[in-house]
Amino acid sequence: MPKQAIDPKILILSAPSGGGKTSLALALVKGRSDAEIAISHTTRGARPGEIDGVHYQFVDSDTFRKLIDEDAFIEYASVYGNLYGTSRVAVNDLLESGKHAILDIDWQGARAVRECHPEAISVFILPPSIHELEQRLRERNQDSELVIRQRMDKAREELSHQAEFQTVLVNENFDDSVACLNQILDAPDHE
């Protein structure tokens, strides 16, 4: 039987594209039976290796807009021309099952989640440097030069929102960053 969290929490992870939030979220839940990532909906196409219902709920724009009209999301935003949103039902189901809900979202989404869930814990993940961030984006081999430049410009703007988060974590050593996130979830109360 999976371990249940004593006090299930919402843990928001935000970072500029390439900052490592998705990799950290995956590593965090892999090592815990009491936490799961709330799978986001998106209108963007699947990248190589991504599976519908595992990495994202891939939907078309009309379906996404219908879900907005139904107030199905606790947060949603347009990012790089695609829509992303976190399902209310997905988060509530995780919490009600005794599991921590891990949200892999941007700063705008984090702001919206904190409005309806002020108890949520928010962590902004920083790369060790802007140079390292650019290197990570290039090593992913997923984007054109133009898209990388756009992501870097957006990253500089996103970094200005780190003060809105309870914790800022520099993702220099991956294992240390995962350990830090585990400590945050295991803390009895997070102020």
Backbone structural class? alpha/beta
How many H/I helices? 7
Q: Write down the oligomeric state.
A: single chain
Helix content: 40-55%
Distance between the termini: 30 Å
* Uncertain ranges: none
Number of strands: 9
What integer is the average pLDDT? 90
Which band does the percent of strand residues land in? 15-25%
* Anisotropy-based shape: globular
Strand arrangement across the biggest beta sheet: 2-7-1-8-9
Main sheet record = 5 strands, parallel
Q: Note the run of SSEs as H and E.
A: EHEEEHEEHEHEHHEH
Overall radius of gyration: 16 Å
Explain what you see.
The protein is of the alpha/beta class and 191 residues long. It has seven helices and nine strands; from the N terminus they run E-H-E-E-E-H-E-E-H-E-H-E-H-H-E-H. It has helices spanning 21-30, 61-69, 88-96, 107-116, 130-140, 145-159, 174-186; strands at residues 10-14, 35-37, 41-42, 57-58, 73-79, 82-87, 100-104, 121-126, 167-170. The strands form two sheets. A five-stranded parallel sheet has the order 2-7-1-8-9, sandwiched between helices. It has a four-stranded mixed sheet with strand order 4-3-6-5. The protein is globular. The two termini are 30 Å apart. The relative contact order is 0.22. The model has no long low-confidence stretch (mean pLDDT 90).
